[in-house]
């Protein structure tokens, strides 16, 4: 599958989930939280993965105190949000195809970003896993889609059963998947983990 197709599918998943969240999703993400990113650069050692430098940036972003929180780790980069929201069931997401919608808005190095973890059920039955579901976790620069500062995506479920699922127990969200960096032409498979607590 081409990188352009993957990027388009990821944007489609985000649009469907965002449109389905209604006003409640926008209210849950609010306007006063923070996102933190810790980036560790690897040394030029032939891929041994030994870190040579580490940078941590924290900036004000959208969200209200008392909301949920989330940590996304992709490779050796960590992103933290304190304004995470969660909606389960099409009656709550506002879209018959969206069984689960969750995420947060934030800023990384002064750029607005969106974290999203969503499940679509193509059969419109509010299924959370299994055949017919599309599981997606992504973190995207929402100011510059052409040259994003960050663009991580893990999307599955287009052919057969998904290889991984978003686990949701009513108060926490967990997912482990392989992420692609949308800023490159290659198709990467970088291990990543999302752990979040709903408000």
Summary tags:
alpha+beta, 8-stranded antiparallel β-barrel, 199 residues
Helix content: 10-25%
DSSP strand count: 11
> What sequence of helices (H) and strands (E) makes up the elements?
HHEEEEHEEEEEEE
Described by strand count, sense and barrel closure, the largest sheet is:
8 strands, antiparallel, barrel
Structural class, judged by helices and strands? alpha+beta
Uncertain segments are 1-66
Distance between the termini: 36 Å
Mean pLDDT: 76
Question: How do the strands and helices of this protein lay out in sequence?
Answer:
Elements: H1 3-20, H2 22-29, E1 34-42, E2 51-60, E3 68-74, E4 77-88, H3 90-93, E5 98-108, E6 111-121, E7 133-141, E8 151-156, E9 167-168, E10 172-181, E11 190-197
Antiparallel strand pairs: 1-2, 1-4, 3-4, 3-11, 4-5, 5-6, 6-7, 7-8, 8-10, 9-10, 10-11
Descriptive overview:
The protein is of the alpha+beta class. Helices cover 15% and strands 48% of the residues. It contains three helices and eleven strands, in the order H-H-E-E-E-E-H-E-E-E-E-E-E-E. The protein has helices spanning 3-20, 22-29, 90-93; strands spanning 34-42, 51-60, 68-74, 77-88, 98-108, 111-121, 133-141, 151-156, 167-168, 172-181, 190-197. The chain has an eight-stranded antiparallel beta barrel with strand order 3-4-5-6-7-8-10-11. Strand 10 (172-181) and strand 11 form a beta hairpin. The longest helix has 18 residues, at 3-20. The chain is globular and about 40 Å long. The chain starts with a helix and ends with a strand.
């Amino acid at each position: 599958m081409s990188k352009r197709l993957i990027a388009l599918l990821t944007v489609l998943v985000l649009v469907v989930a965002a449109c389905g969240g209604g006003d409640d999703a926008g209210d849950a993400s609010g306007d006063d939280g923070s996102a933190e990113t810790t980036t560790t650069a690897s040394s030029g050692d032939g891929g041994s993965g030994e870190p040579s430098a580490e940078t941590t940036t924290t900036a004000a972003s959208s969200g209200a105190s008392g909301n949920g929180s989330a940590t996304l780790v992709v490779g050796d980069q960590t992103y933290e949000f304190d304004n995470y929201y969660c909606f389960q069931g099409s009656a709550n997401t506002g879209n018959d195809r969206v069984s689960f919608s969750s995420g947060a808005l934030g800023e990384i190095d002064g750029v607005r970003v969106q974290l999203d973890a969503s499940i679509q059920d193509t059969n419109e039955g509010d299924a959370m896993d299994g055949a017919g579901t599309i599981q997606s976790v992504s973190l995207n620069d929402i100011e510059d889609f052409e040259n994003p500062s960050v663009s991580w995506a893990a999307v599955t479920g287009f052919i057969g059963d998904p290889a991984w699922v978003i686990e949701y127990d009513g108060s926490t969200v967990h997912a482990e998947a392989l992420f692609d960096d949308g800023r490159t032409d290659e198709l990467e498979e970088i291990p990543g983990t999302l752990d979040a607590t709903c408000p």
